[in-house]
Write a structure and sequence with these properties.
It is built from 22 helices and 11 strands. By secondary structure, the chain is an alpha+beta fold. The chain folds into 4 domains: 14-81, DNA Methylphosphotriester Repair Domain; 94-194, Arc Repressor Mutant, subunit A (Orthogonal Bundle), CATH 1.10.10; 208-295, TATA-Binding Protein (2-Layer Sandwich), CATH 3.30.310.20; 332-498, Hypothetical protein, domain 2 (Endonuclease III, domain 1). The strands form 3 sheets. It has a 5-stranded antiparallel beta sheet. A 4-stranded mixed beta sheet has the order 3-1-2-4. The protein has a two-stranded antiparallel sheet with strand order 10-11. The relative contact order is 0.09.
Length: 510
């Protein structure tokens, strides 16, 4: 087939793409897509199908760009499973912030002009930046995203097609069928028949299972270690193989579990297994997005290492744990309460305090959703007037938690993805009891911001010199300038190396 020449400005070097395609290098999964002109199909670099001739191949920076050029996704390698391009989809760039909004379904009911306004750009400028970066306009990125998510649900689950349409953000089954047919030249029911051997049999009593791919290496064991020491009884369960928790509301609670996807025949399945129970179809995309952020599945380890390994203190840490990721939190308010409760106390003490708060003020479920999962974490409304001193918080911390709850409810602070790191830190630091350390910690764990950096952290100031001395905060900030835009990963490596991480390691400057 003939197609417009792809935009190569934000692609890896063509020779690198060619080597990655021929070797099926998983480190490049999601960094580019291979389109085959003779078949009209586009693939991931890891596609197991026989490699096409170079003369028939074009490279595209995104699935949306390949689809805009008229290519259809491969049914074998399934481009919907590719991790995002974590090298620039995160952080403060306008395109990155707009993409986060698109991933949350912003364009499903709002015009492009409103999206542009949210990231403080003109509509034409935002469209131009998207075409430069992704090879497709925002509307095309949005359309590709929801159709690929629908494709995953059709392939991996037994959800009725009507529910798949709702989960993918379509207001009607007719519109979904028409969009799917136009983009992929087959009806959703035909894809379901094609995938019937892989999809499980329908059973409402069983959880929904989805595969969430990542770009290797990925240190899942370290991620579980971090989450295990902070797990709240009744709300979370973490063992050596999986993380489980409750979510939702008192009226519609649910639970999820995240574990390693069983290895394939070649032993190289780079994915996590997400099990969901009790999630409404319209919630699925948002829940998957939360899990991807919490487990940092879109990171690009090579891009991170290329910057951080230039520092002699960080270089051996990256070699020791090349797959270390940012361990996120499930809910921003929950992370904020944990951070405040943990100021100047140990991780274990902070966990005990938060467990008491959760047991006293969280919603107790009539029956466990799964073994050990008995409560939902308290809402901001529940903690506005709750007896937090009885749970063990000091009067000052009680005022801080209540101030956070009020500020979230009245919109003075929040976790909206269009914020820059500076905007987020400034708004949160304006609250009584919240200083730069806590605000940066929230950005790291609640937003998954890759450049969040709590420079006043005592552990960091001791860990960087590696000789028993302690750096001044300004000295550490100056040293860390060379780590941008990945300072958050330096934090995690240094905390891990020091075998101690906050809450509990910050000096009380707030």
């Amino acid at each position: 087939m003939s197609s417009p020449a792809p935009n190569t400005r934000h692609l890896p070097d063509p020779q690198i793409c060619e080597r990655a395609r021929l070797s099926r290098d998983p480190r490049f999964d999601g960094l580019f897509f291979t389109a085959v002109r003779s078949t009209g199909i586009y693939c991931r670099p890891v596609c197991p199908a026989p490699a096409p001739k170079r003369a028939n191949v074009d490279y595209y920076p995104s699935a949306a760009a390949a689809e805009a050029a008229g290519f259809r996704p491969c049914l074998r390698c399934r481009p919907e499973l590719s991790p995002g391009d974590g090298a620039w989809r995160r952080g403060d760039e306008a395109v990155a912030r707009a993409l986060k909004l698109i991933d949350q379904g912003f364009l499903a009911e709002r015009p492009l002009a409103e999206l542009a306004a949210r990231v403080h750009l003109g509509e034409r400028q935002l469209r131009r930046l998207f075409v430069q970066r992704l090879g497709a306009a925002p509307a095309g990125v949005h359309g590709t995203r929801r159709l690929l998510f629908a494709k995953q649900l059709l392939t991996e689950t037994s959800l009725p097609i009507t529910e798949v349409a709702l989960a993918a953000g379509f207001g009607s089954l007719r519109r979904f069928n028409a969009a799917f047919q136009e983009a992929y030249r087959m009806a959703p029911r035909d894809l379901r028949r094609h995938a019937s051997d892989d999809a499980p049999a329908a059973d409402p009593a069983q959880p929904l299972v989805l595969r969430l791919a990542y770009r290797p290496p990925y240190d899942f064991a370290s991620m579980l270690d971090f989450l295990r020491t902070r797990a709240l009884p009744g709300i979370e369960q973490v063992d050596a193989r999986s993380y489980a928790r409750t979510f939702g509301t008192a009226e519609a609670p649910g639970w999820l579990r995240v574990s390693a996807w069983p290895a394939g025949r070649d032993g190289r399945t780079h994915a996590l297994k997400l099990e969901l129970q009790g999630a409404a179809p319209a919630q699925l995309a948002a829940l998957v997005g939360r899990v991807r952020r919490m487990f940092d599945l879109d990171a690009d380890p090579d891009a991170i290492a290329a910057v951080l390994s230039a520092d002699p203190r960080l270089r051996p840490l990256l070699r020791k744990r090349p797959g270390l990721r940012l361990p996120g939190g499930w809910d921003g308010f929950e992370v904020a309460v944990r951070a405040v409760a943990g100021q100047q106390v140990s991780v274990a003490a902070a966990r005990t305090l938060c467990a008491r708060i959760a047991q006293r003020h969280g919603h107790a479920l009539p029956a466990p959703l799964a073994p050990g999962l008995t409560h939902l974490f308290p809402t901001p409304e529940a903690l506005l007037d709750g007896d937090l001193e009885g749970a063990g918080l000091t009067p000052v911390r009680v005022l801080t938690v209540r101030g956070i709850a009020r500020a979230l409810l009245d919109g003075r602070v929040g976790f909206a993805p269009e914020q820059t790191l500076a905007q987020f830190v400034d708004s949160w630091s304006a609250l009584p009891g919240i200083g730069p350390w806590t605000a940066q910690y929230l950005a790291l764990r609640a937003l998954g911001h890759p450049d969040a950096f709590p420079a006043g952290d005592l552990v960091l100031r001791k860990a960087v010199p590696d000789d028993g001395s302690r750096m001044a905060t300004r000295e550490l900030e100056a040293r860390a300038e060379a780590w941008r835009p990945w300072r958050g990963y330096a934090v995690i490596h240094l905390w891990r190396d020091a075998a101690a991480s906050p809450p509990g390691s910050a000096e009380d400057t707030e």
